[in-house]
Structures
1.
Amino acid sequence: MTAAPPPVITTRALTKNYGRTRALFGLDLEVRAGEVFGFLGPNGAGKSTTIRILLDLIRRSGGEARVLGLDPRADGVRVRREVGYLPGELTVASRRPARELLAYLGDLRGGVSPARIGELADRLGLDLSRPVRGLSKGNKQKVGLVQAFMHRPRLLVLDEPTSGLDPLLQQEFLEMVRETRADGRTVFMSSHVLGEVQDVADRAAVIRRGRIVATEDMDALRERASRQVRIRFAAPVDAAGFTGLENVRDVDVSGDTVSCVVDGSPDALVKRAARHTVLEFDSAEPDLEDLFFTHYNNGTDREGPSDAE
Ligand SMILES: Nc1ncnc2c1ncn2[C@@H]1O[C@H](COP(=O)(O)OP(=O)(O)OP(=O)(O)O)[C@@H](O)[C@H]1O
């Protein structure tokens, strides 16, 4: 058996104070090589602060951090060169067309072909001929995404990557994330809602008021998730046939229709239903967001920044 590769990002007891305000209270994080990791939390929770420490854009107050085996505080330049980073807010005021700015940034990273830049811009619907300065928030976000992905970095750190993108472009972006993972590279992305990362993330952590309050494997979360199922058959069915099935509860049989709640795999229910002629099978998507938060927090207190404690 080969040993697992070392984590790509680690923080231990990471703290950050802004003057007398403490923004991070001893953060422990571990992001594994090759995974897509969602970093979730409401506004003001400390996501950008954490990310900016990882890239040495601000300095930590205490604790440790490692990115690609490097300490950002000692090797900030190397970390920034190796990581594809999308800032929460891209502040470029260049009069130059996006094409030139991206070519320049590509040169700083060892050279990126115009074809590669053009391909990413096409996918995101970015007009490369327009000056960056006058671009809308959404178009600036696209420039930010192109520069983060274009040199195929081993690690992408993306701060709220989907903000300002319409739903179709969000899907395109998620496809780019999947391709990155398929290449064996790692993506760490923040969001304030689970829904934006749940289809693509392997794991996710929730940060609230400067503390990690949950870390979850997304497959395990899906397995625990309940869904409401309704099946309509060609003829009335016997209620007894649908009681006591594995993972199935709250069964209600009314003539030709069975309604129930399934926790986890619906295998037993599907096999039992297959004994009859099924006309309709409706299964509501489980609400992972609710499950994620209620599991740890009883669904309360979902937002708000903190004062120092
Ligand atoms: N430069 C600063 N000076 C003082 N306080 C700051 C500074 N930057 C952030 N904070 C505070 O630190 C806390 C964490 O902010 P941070 O920006 O990291 O949160 P976030 O989770 O990224 O939220 P958002 O999505 O709103 O950016 C907040 O209470 C914020 O007010």
Note: The CA atoms of residues 242 and 251 lie 7 Å apart.
2.
Amino acid sequence: MSLENPRTTKYEFLGPVGAFLISTGVPLTIYGLYYACSEQTGGCPPPGLFMSKLPAFLDTQAALMYLAWYLFCVIAWRVLPGAQVPGTTLRNGTVKTYKINAFSTLVLAIVIVVALIIYSGPDAFTFLYKRYVGFVTASVVMSIIQAVGVYALSHRKDALLALGGNTGNMMYDWFIGRELNPTLSIFGEEFDIKTFNELRPGLILWVLLNISFMCEQATRNGGFIGVTDSMWLVLLFQIGYVVDSLYNEPAILTTMDITTDGFGFMLSVGDLAWVPFTYSLQARYLTFHPITLGPFFTILILFVNAVGYYIFRTANSEKNDFRNGKDTRNLRYFVTKRGSKLITSGWWGRSRHPNYFGDIIMALAWSLPTGFNTPITYFYVVFFGVLLVHRQGRDDEACEKKYGKDWEKYKQIVRWKIIPYIY
Ligand SMILES: NC(=O)C1=CN([C@@H]2O[C@H](COP(=O)(O)OP(=O)(O)OC[C@H]3O[C@@H](n4cnc5c(N)ncnc54)[C@H](OP(=O)(O)O)[C@@H]3O)[C@@H](O)[C@H]2O)C=CC1
Ligand SMILES: CC(C)=CCC[C@@H](C)[C@H]1CC=C2C3=C(CC[C@@]21C)[C@@]1(C)CC[C@H](O)C(C)(C)[C@@H]1CC3
């Protein structure tokens, strides 16, 4: 075992057994959510739990369309212009550069879809709703293929492995991600598989799925005039979130997924299947269960989302500006033995993950438009809460390793983990 790629001695997610359970559980949950909440199976939930029939899992047309979608994203990455931005310094001392053009890819995709809808009517873009299960299968197959491919590639002599992904247990390493930054060369340009998947094919597909669900509602209700206020709210919030993520694309380069985690099945299925198909559940529900909120509830939900967005954005900007030497707020901080500074006032003085707090408030605002008819449309809030609590724990552990006593000192100053005065 080389010094650069030490053997991993600690398992996360309960080791190989957990890796197996999550790898099978994630696709099953995506199908399960469709089964438990869809028009085709009889409602949300269906009247008899085991009585309804699932549509075909395999749909060749959907698979071909999904492949075309993925290729569109790759071609857009290659041909659209974009700044070359350096990532963080890797532990072997090298720095990778990334092409920043995810936002232009989103704009291009939306322009094409809107042109299609204007030219041919909303009915022309309902195929994502109608062939939903086929698209799920295509994205899961794509995730498996990619995870197998990057696992095989990671056995090159020059591969830099993730510190957490080199246990030697095939199942676990395949799941958690063995290589830190699997890269291909596409027409002479370095293609970083992990950052590409994290921001483009899945997040933009989430937007397109939502637009397709709105088109289905419009088709049924006499055009876009018949689209309900609840559907508009969900689209506004979720498209706004994706726009924000892609517009701030360089911010992803310092997240733990990019700096620390390898790319394996957990991230490939999370990025390509889980994000678009479970995060869009609310809009899919509203397609077959339209809800009119009226001005009072619309304004109330807009307010909840605005509060969440304000916290999420100002917290992330405070940290990014501070770390980039552009702080205008005179935030208090202390310098750690490692040399980096930890903020102790503003949002980062109120809790150790104020951005997660904003994110979870937004998650709630995205489910509220579906009313209180079924708990299933609140799945995202629950999952996201669990994800963020777990992520907070992982980050705390990583910071403890990085900063040692300095992290203890920071924890003494900032006692709350996510929600000030509560958690
Ligand atoms: N919608 C979704 O499904 C998901 C959304 N997200 C969102 O992604 C965003 C990024 O999240 P994530 O990467 O987990 O973590 P953060 O952006 O919260 O970054 C954590 C890192 O920030 C640095 N840091 C911590 N405390 C301080 C401080 N006081 N002062 C300065 N730096 C500090 C540390 O790294 P260092 O010191 O090494 O720089 C730490 O590892 C969040 O807004 C989150 O809500 C995340 C996951 C899923
Ligand atoms: C069910 C399963 C296997 C879960 C894996 C977790 C993934 C769903 C998440 C891990 C980190 C993520 C990030 C985003 C989406 C969810 C996943 C993939 C993210 C792209 C959402 C938008 C944000 O602005 C972000 C870019 C910061 C974020 C990055 C992490």
Note: The CA atoms of residues 190 and 275 lie 25 Å apart.
